[in-house]
Write the structure tokens for this entry.
Amino acid sequence: MRTDDLFLAGIGSHLPPRVTVEEAVANGWYDEAAAAVSGMRAVTVSPGEPAPDMAIRAGRNALEGCGHTPDDFAVLLHSATHPQGPEGWSAPHYVLLNTLNRPIPALELRQGCLSMLAGVEAAWHRLRADSGCGAALVTTADNFSTALADRWRASDLFLLADGASSVVVSRSHGFARVRAIGSRSDPAMEGLHRAGEALFPPGSTVGRGLNFQERGERVREQWAAGDAPPILGFGEQVAAIAERTLGEAGLTMADIRRVCHPGYTIDALDAIFLDPVGAGPEDSAWDYTSTVGHTGAADLFLALEHLWRGGAVNRGDHVLLIGSTTGMEAGCAIVEIIADREGN
């Protein structure tokens, strides 16, 4: 949908130190052959920092210099793709307490790796409905250093990374204007990440972890046995949502300066995201994401912050943010840079 009054007034992140792929191979964590074709150089890893604490650090960075006071905020939206703390506890309110500390709603979004993009859209709808407030804080964070995830082998599409990102959504000003945003799903493909696994009891309650690679192999086995899975052409969904969102913004890919995308391995990135929108690695944030990995929902905004603060995009440039989540769903936003980065 077109969004003429949606701005990003602040952006911030927190990333722990990097572990190189060479170190992972040397320690037996990552297969040498897989490493050779992945194109990945490093992954951000935190052995023990709680994800909500990373979200707080990112949120404080986004709030600094955003041009809004805490009383301007209508809502905080927090998201994650991995457990955040004690069962039944509210990570969003913990983040709220340690950032804005105001008696406003703190909500959790469960939209997988599209949660940050969905959070920006949801924040905009909330602000349009609440004319008394002009800003919202959107945060996300994950730490995959748990027994439920093997960051090096959970998928052949990506390496799981730890980190956090945050943006201040505003209806009045910002360094960037979101010209259009939206998503598109193909729910017939939800089984690709279920692969026949029982829904109850939930996997994490009985020690089953996050392993997309294992489920993918199970789907292939089911296919070989005659139980055909849904059509796997997810790139068509990516192309369709990008085309729709560009049209809503009144632009084409020729107007796009750079593409922000998930932190996938190079072959998966090309096949799922870049090729479908007619972009190449030189148009993307690959040089950066290949040193971070896949942080869950933070990827797109980590890349946007890196490109803007690093000077790869400047005032007047348009950036396409494209991502996906299980379900399957693809999401897109068109962002126009309208302010110079700090120091310029």
In short: The chain has three domains: 7-173, 179-186+233-337, 188-224. The radius of gyration is 19 Å.
